[in-house]
């Protein structure tokens, strides 16, 4: 199991955030700054847009974001982070656009949440300029991934499945096609804090946005199928933590679904 570790011990200078300060200097991007290698430019301005005073400090802080990039949560995540850790050395600071921040946050924040990290306040998107101003806009508008740990599992026993239901905010089985669209069958076993009518739209959003997770689940079933999925509700998003292929021959799953309404979860 991979562990995602992200340091959030960042500082931010709100004074003159987007203007080059008289004390700022240009430096070569250090070769050990793995986050920002081969990004299209080779010099950066310090202090950077996160308030780091030296290249060494920027290297140390940026390294903690590498596990997030390894998850391939968004194709523009590296561009967004490097615009803050290693801003290109021009006459003035060029910040990321608000839309770039929002696109990266929408796709990457669910991964961070899986490991207990919220999207940091230091990266709140409303501080960045609108797209019509001079800023770095999103190159790719299609988020690609969410929690890549989710895989299709065999149900070990009906009791284990019932306990997984207890730990989850929602549980339902659905029919999904080979193009990852929601089919006609959607049976809700547990909807948690969501209203019943919200489940379908949230599942459709999950199918659209969490492509890596969906690919993991459907890899051996390219034509689609019916799947039992469970997970947690995090804001507007569903994060799937358990998934099983649903078929009537699986006695553990059918027994768990039959018993669920009468099952008493342990606190």
TrEMBL record:
Residues 1-20 form the signal peptide. GO terms for biological process: canonical Wnt signaling pathway; cell differentiation; non-canonical Wnt signaling pathway. Pfam families: Fz. Keywords: Developmental protein, Differentiation, Disulfide bond, Secreted, Signal, Wnt signaling pathway. PROSITE patterns: FZ. The keyword Signal applies. Disulfide bonds join 36-82, 101-125. SUPFAM superfamilies: Frizzled cysteine-rich domain. Residues 21-138 form the FZ domain. Belongs to the secreted frizzled-related protein (sFRP) family. This is FZ domain-containing protein.
């Amino acid at each position: 199991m991979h562990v995602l570790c992200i340091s959030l011990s960042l500082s931010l200078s709100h004074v003159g955030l987007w203007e080059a300060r008289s004390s700022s200097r240009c430096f070569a991007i250090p070769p050990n700054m793995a986050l920002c290698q081969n990004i299209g430019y080779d010099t950066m301005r310090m202090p950077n847009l996160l308030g780091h005073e030296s290249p060494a400090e920027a290297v140390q802080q940026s390294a903690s974001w590498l596990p997030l990039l390894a998850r391939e949560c968004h194709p523009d995540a590296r561009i967004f982070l490097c615009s803050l850790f290693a801003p290109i050395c021009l006459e003035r600071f060029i910040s990321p656009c608000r839309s770039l921040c929002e696109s990266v946050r929408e796709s990457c924040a669910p991964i961070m949440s899986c490991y207990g990290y919220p999207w940091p306040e230091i990266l709140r998107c409303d501080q960045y300029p609108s797209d019509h101003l001079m800023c770095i806009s999103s190159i790719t508008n299609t988020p690609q991934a969410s929690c890549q740990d989710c895989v299709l599992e065999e149900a070990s026993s009906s009791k284990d499945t019932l306990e997984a239901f207890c730990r989850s905010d929602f549980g339902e089985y659905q029919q999904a096609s080979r193009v990852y669209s929601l089919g006609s069958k959607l049976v809700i076993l547990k909807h948690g804090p969501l209203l019943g009518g919200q489940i379908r739209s949230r599942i459709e959003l999950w199918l659209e946005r969490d492509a890596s997770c969906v690919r993991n689940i459907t890899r051996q079933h390219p034509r689609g199928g019916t799947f039992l999925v469970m997970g947690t509700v995090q804001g507007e998003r569903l994060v799937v933590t358990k998934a099983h292929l649903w078929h009537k021959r699986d006695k553990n799953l059918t027994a768990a679904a039959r018993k669920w309404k009468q099952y008493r979860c342990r606190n």
